[in-house]
Specification:
The complex is a heterodimer of chains A (462) and B (335).
Chain A: H1 3-9, H2 11-19, H3 25-33, H4 40-57, H5 63-74, H6 80-87, H7 94-116, H8 129-134, H9 155-168, H10 172-197, H11 201-226, E1 233-234, E2 238-243, H12 246-254, E3 262-266, E4 269-274, H13 281-296, E5 305-308, E6 313-317, H14 330-347, E7 350-355, H15 363-378, E8 383-387, E9 398-405, E10 423-429, H16 439-445, H17 450-461
Parallel strand pairs in A: 1-5, 4-8, 4-9, 6-7, 7-8
Antiparallel strand pairs in A: 2-3, 2-5, 9-10
Chain B: H1 4-7, E1 12-17, H2 24-38, E2 42-46, E3 65-67, E4 72-76, H3 77-81, E5 86-97, E6 100-109, E7 111-113, H4 121-133, E8 138-142, E9 158-164, H5 171-185, H6 192-198, E10 205-208, E11 214-216, E12 238-241, E13 245-246, H7 247-256, E14 261-264, E15 270-271, H8 274-282, E16 286-289, E17 294-301, H9 312-323, E18 327-328, H10 330-334
Parallel strand pairs in B: 1-8, 1-9, 2-4, 2-8, 9-17, 12-14, 13-15, 14-16, 17-18
Antiparallel strand pairs in B: 3-7, 4-6, 5-6, 10-11, 10-12
Helix pairs in contact in B: 5-9, 7-8
Classes of the chains: A alpha/beta (462), B alpha/beta (335).
Chain lengths: 462, 335
């Protein structure tokens, strides 16, 4: 699976890619085409390269090379169309030939910068001196281009005459003839140069791809430094110390709200997450999903310490999709999604994140469905996290409870804005089959209609 | 050699026409010719795509621009490939136009070139900076159609206004239309302190009270002005419109009272018809600008695209008299 497909399903990951400081359109394409990696060896190698890139980015004495390299990447143009023409023996025009010469020249500057940063083994670049030489017949070494006089023996005399006529206001008919002849020669030269460049098309494509990859790599390195990301270890379970959701952390900081990272460990099988409303269960699922995708897309993760267990994919049913437009009710779209998740898990090991399944239907059938989902997923090799408000599910799977409201805060006036200061988002192992009952209390904190709350309370008391 | 020495005091020049076929290109060729004689290193580009060899509206022959050795120019890939000058490519921009990417080249053997350029003033500004970094003495921007935005003092340092029979074959009307725009170009500037304070405001209509305090009138757009229930003049009679100024705004202000001073960013933001403007000023109101464009000259093309020909000398004289500024028929100067 490629990053561009993952972006459709994970809004948190979209925020990560949007935050990356890519210098070129080609670099952005390299990012979108990067794959969700399932091989431990490949991923370790990718993380090694990222670690090297982070070292180079932090290499203050060689800052000059870093700036040079990023500047080269900024000048990188996407030449895929030109390369396709070259591969198909379609003659290139002067502008396209210039672009190729410019790429060769850029790659030469990039190689110098990469060497200066000690990144040569990490970012090996093809040698473009041959195609550059084809486009630099006068050995100027400069990335300018035109159909040089030396490309054709007829050009120097023709242009001398043309120049004399043009500057003296000579015979327009003769000028017109000379221009036509020059045009013929130039076209012939373009065809010849395109033929000479044809064998180098692979080298040129590789050069552009490597530079685009360098752009993506440096952007990941810069992000890792900016957000204090950490290199995960690969293990049999998922384990984070102080896991953060970058998007929500950013939003909280903007609103001057506290952000509490969480510690969590999840193993194969099913783990239920319970806790009061507003205790951050949904955010927890999203954070775990985003971090898993980041790790397997060759990035470091937003935590202080991390172990990831490699999976074939991340499948989620987290209920903020707007499926009404497809003519499906929220229950219908949810149950279809869950059914697809079960199908996927039967053939592959997945990370499964389901937020409050069956909450939009009647509690009797809803609870039965949740029990069934748990039973099925327990037998499959996936790692599953399910949040729920249903109690007494009668399963012996592992349960984690978000601690929720801090005790002893009852008399402090709460507002919807300050509420997050009174919630402890950390998780605790829970042996009981019950769930917290704090819905009315939260409604009252949120300043909801008093009659509504008191009537509901009476209903419970009876 | 009229107005050339004046141009040399600036780093960038725009040539804008009151209408199509008012002789911008003739004027540009004249300037380029003179600059070449003086050995000035020129950079040339255009705004938008206006480089067709034959005018697509009236099917009249459209003169191409002659560029001389050493000139840097920016045009689209498509127009570059059909140039008659021999030139060397020095840069290709990632910015695409409908005619391919914009390319920058240096002329090796003089010849004719079709110019096309950036679609927006933001890109144009960057292109002018690029030309500047290539060491040109002056950048000249050929205007397209009746676009005036490039003549904004934030884009180019000075401007030439081209007018002519294409605007109106009736000399009186030609004078009236040219004078209207000329008046807007020549509006008085506010003082520097006020300019610095208003310069960074990007939208809305603002009032400046007698103490010099700036108040947001909380009108997001001129179109919402009559929805505003509060008196627009509650903070005094000096107003600043950060965006465009339309007939509608002037009419509302005319109805409100007199002694109003309305400040525009520059003349390219003012889109008012002569009648409404005259009515507005007759009531004792005035328009001012934060920054005034430096108008170097007005040129006249006496030929209209339909073939109508005005008398060059008498029309130039009549315009000069009415505007109290010199007006040139460039074709006549060259002869």
């Amino acid at each position: 699976m490629k990053i561009k497909e993952l972006l459709k399903s994970d809004a948190g990951f979209q925020y990560i890619t949007d935050s990356m400081d890519l210098m070129s359109a080609a670099g952005r394409r390299a990012m979108l085409n990067a794959t969700f990696c399932t091989s431990a060896a490949d991923l370790e190698a990718e993380w090694d390269r990222l670690e090297e890139a982070i070292r180079a980015t932090n290499d203050i004495p060689n800052r000059r090379y870093y700036i040079d390299l990023r500047h080269c990447l900024m000048c990188l143009h996407d030449l895929s169309g030109t390369f396709a023409s070259l591969a198909n023996h379609t003659p290139l025009n002067e502008v396209e030939l210039f672009e190729i010469k410019n790429l060769c020249s850029l790659s030469r500057s990039a190689v110098t910068a990469i060497e200066g940063l000690g990144l040569t083994p990490t970012l090996p670049m093809p040698d473009c001196s041959e195609p550059f030489a084809i486009l630099d017949p006068d050995h100027t070494g400069i990335a300018n281009f035109y159909i040089y006089d030396s490309y054709d023996p007829e050009l120097p005399t023709l242009r001398r005459e043309l120049n004399a006529l043009q500057t003296s206001g000579g015979d327009p008919m003769r000028i017109s003839d000379l221009l036509a002849r020059q045009s013929e020669i130039q076209n012939r030269v373009c065809v010849r140069l395109s033929d000479e460049l044809h064998p180098w098309v692979g080298t040129l494509v590789k050069t552009m791809e490597q530079m685009a990859y360098a752009d993506f790599l440096l952007a990941r390195a810069e992000l890792a430094i900016r957000w204090n990301l950490v290199r995960p270890a690969i293990g049999d379970s998922i384990c984070y110390r102080k896991l953060v959701n970058p998007r929500i952390k950013q939003r909280n900081e903007e609103m001057h709200l506290r952000y509490q990272p969480v510690d969590i460990e999840v193993h194969s099988g099913v783990c239920l997450v319970t806790g009061a409303n507003m205790a951050g269960k949904t955010v927890l699922l999203k954070s775990i999903g985003t971090a898993q995708i980041m790790a397997q897309c060759g990035m470091f993760v937003p935590a202080e310490e991390a172990t990831v267990c490699l999976v074939e994919g991340v499948v989620t049913s987290i209920g903020d999709d707007q499926d009404e437009m497809n003519g499906l009710s929220s229950y219908a779209s949810e149950i279809i999604k869950i059914s697809n998740i079960l199908q996927a898990c039967r053939s592959q090991r997945m990370l499964v994140l389901i937020d409050e399944p069956a909450r939009t239907t009647n509690p009797v059938e809803g609870k039965a469905l949740v029990q069934a989902i748990i039973r099925i997923l327990e037998t499959l090799p996936s790692i599953t996290l399910i949040t729920t408000h249903y109690g007494q599910l009668g399963t012996d799977c592992r349960r984690l409870r978000v601690k929720g409201f801090v005790e002893g805060m009852e008399n402090i006036p709460l507002t919807p804005q300050s509420i997050n200061r009174f919630i402890d988002y950390s998780l605790t192992e829970d042996q009981s089959d019950n769930v917290p009952h704090e819905a009315l209390r939260i409604a009252s904190i949120l300043g909801c209609d008093e009659q509504l709350i008191s009537l509901a309370q009476e209903n419970i008391n009876h | 050699m009229p107005f050339i020495s004046e141009i040399l005091r600036h780093k960038s020049l725009s040539i804008v026409g009151l209408e199509k076929n008012t002789g911008k290109t003739v004027c540009l060729n004249y300037i380029l010719h003179r600059m070449n004689q003086l050995g000035i290193h020129v950079g040339v580009t255009s705004i938008g795509v206006d480089g067709e060899q034959v005018d697509s509206v009236f099917a009249t022959a459209k003169p191409e621009i002659t560029l001389y050795r050493g000139t840097h120019f920016i045009t689209s890939e498509k127009h570059y490939l059909i140039r008659q000058a021999v030139s060397r490519l020095v840069a290709v921009d990632d910015q695409r136009t409908s005619l391919g990417p914009l390319v920058t080249a240096e002329v090796l053997i003089q010849g004719k070139v079709l110019l096309s350029g950036a679609a927006t003033t933001a890109v144009l500004k960057r292109q002018i900076q690029n030309l500047d970094s290539m060491g040109v003495d002056i950048s000249i921007v050929d205007g397209a159609l009746s676009r005036l935005s490039l003549a904004s003092p934030t884009v180019t340092d000075c401007m030439i206004l081209a007018t002519g029979a294409a605007v109106s074959a009736n000399v009186k009307q030609l004078i009236a239309k040219t004078r209207h725009l000329y008046q807007l170009i020549c509006l008085d500037e506010v003082d520097e302190t006020l300019r610095n304070r208003l310069n960074n405001i990007e939208s809305g209509i603002w009032a400046i009270d007698s103490e010099g305090e700036i108040h947001d009138l909380e009108i997001a757009s001129v179109f919402l002005i009559d929805r505003s229930e509060k008196d627009i003049l509650r903070f005094g009679h000096t107003l600043f419109a950060a965006g465009a100024i339309s007939d509608r705004l002037l009419k509302i202000l005319s109805a409100k009272g007199k002694d109003i001073t309305l400040i525009a960013r520059d003349f390219t933001k003012i889109f008012v018809t002569p009648e409404v403007y005259v009515d507005y000023t007759r009531r004792g109101n005035r328009l001012m600008v934060l920054q005034r464009s430096k108008l170097i000259a007005i040129t006249l093309n006496p030929t209209s695209p339909q073939g109508f020909l005005l008398d060059s000398k008498s029309t130039c004289d009549a315009l000069s008299d009415a505007l109290q500024t010199p007006v040139y028929d460039v074709k006549k100067i060259e002869q």
